[in-house]
Specification:
- The chain is an alpha/beta fold.
- It is built from 10 helices and 6 strands, in the order αααααβββαβαβαααβ.
- The protein folds into 3 domains: 53 residues; 33 residues, no CATH class; 222 residues, Nucleotidyltransferase, domain 5 (2-Layer Sandwich).
- A 6-stranded mixed beta sheet has the order 3-2-1-4-5-6, sandwiched between helices.
- 31% of the residues are buried.
Length: 345
């Protein structure tokens, strides 16, 4: 049985920290070189040190050592300029169109900055990602979707593999993963935001239908993104990018190399059937990856400012928000329609 909390899996084995540190003479040469030739990139600095001292430093190591010694590289300066531009944008100050577009590409969550939430569970966006493209046949083994949910407070993420991209699968994800996760955190799930995908809708008012009715039965408000806004929530967009590059592609490559029916290097979708053993193994790997993402992956920029999703929740003391009542109505500019939960019986 797969645990409902994506953060409860045992921590994966980690490689022991390498005790071999760069010799002091190499560190001194690194700092001196960076100060005397600020135009050099981290790769160029590393290559020169390797030629002179026979020590090859990774790019991340060069950046970290220079930061510790107060040396700002071109990458540091670019990062600082972007942080300053983001701060100006959040303060309502004008930024150029080029910088604005660059900020949104780097951090899609900025698209939702006018809709800040005050605590976990206030608004959670959901979506689906096809991990395996359906073939011409009707074999369930040829299907694999990931149903995803991202909390707009700090970007806490949940996800699970299903064989279908149907309303029934979306409801199963809601009941099997989302609701138990929030109950385990002691947080009330107040609102679920969906796009205009038919899976999440019913009639033209988005009131009747399996998914809207399931939300009402659980006492959860349903919000549908308006047509004047991008179909994908910015928080979901940021998570989906990290998920596709950090989990889906490596999983495809790994399974392909192991001869489990997935071709290596096939991109973001798969061309062959996904066997049952690979399907359930992928579920377990996904749970481990989510634990790492939520608990160990710092999210730079708005709104986390370098905190992991879980640290963002814990640092704000929001895990005590179980009694919070979100009474303010949603901003109608952003929605097609907002549906209140059903009255308690």
């Amino acid at each position: 049985m797969i645990p409902t909390d994506p953060t409860t899996f045992p921590e994966p084995a980690r490689e022991k920290e390498n005790d071999t540190r760069p010799p002091p003479v190499v560190v001194e040469a690194l700092v001196t070189l960076a100060r005397e030739a600020p135009e050099l990139s981290s790769e160029e600095i590393s290559a020169r040190l390797e030629r002179e001292y026979g020590v090859r430093l990774a790019k991340a190591t060069v950046t970290r050592l220079l930061y510790r010694h107060g040396v700002r590289t071109a990458a540091h300066r670019r990062s600082e300029r972007m942080r300053q531009a983001e701060a100006s944008l959040l303060a309502g100050e004008p930024v150029s169109g080029w910088i604005y577009n660059k900020l949104l590409r780097a951090n899609p969550a900025l698209k939702e900055r006018e809709r800040e939430t005050r605590g976990p569970g206030e608004r959670v966006c959901v979506a689906q990602l096809p991990v395996r493209r359906p073939g011409a046949g009707d074999d369930r083994r040829s299907r694999a979707w990931v149903h995803m949910a991202v909390d707009m407070y700090g970007g806490m993420a949940m996800a699970e593999f299903y064989r279908e991209a149907t309303a029934a699968a979306a409801v199963a994800f809601l009941r099997e993963r989302m609701v138990p996760f929030y109950e385990g955190e002691g947080v009330r799930l107040g609102c679920v935001e969906t796009n205009r995908n038919h899976v999440y809708q019913g009639d033209r008012h988005h009131e009747c239908g399996l998914y809207p009715e399931s939300l009402r039965a659980l006492g959860i408000r349903h919000e549908v993104r308006g047509r004047q806004w991008p179909e994908t929530n910015g928080f979901m967009e940021r998570f989906r990018e990290a998920f596709a590059s950090g989990f889906v592609k490596p999983l495809q490559l790994g399974l392909g190399q192991q001869g489990q029916g997935w071709p290596a290097g096939s991109g973001r979708t798969l061309e062959d059937a996904m066997p049952e053993d690979a399907f359930y193994a992928a579920r377990e790997k996904l749970a481990e990856w989510l634990r790492h993402y939520n608990g160990e992956t710092p999210l730079e920029g708005y709104p986390n400012a370098g905190l992991t999703p879980r640290a963002f929740w814990q640092g704000a003391g929001t895990l005590k928000a179980v009694k919070t009542v979100f009474s303010e109505p949603p901003d109608s500019r952003f929605l097609i329609r907002s549906h209140p939960p059903a009255s308690p019986r």
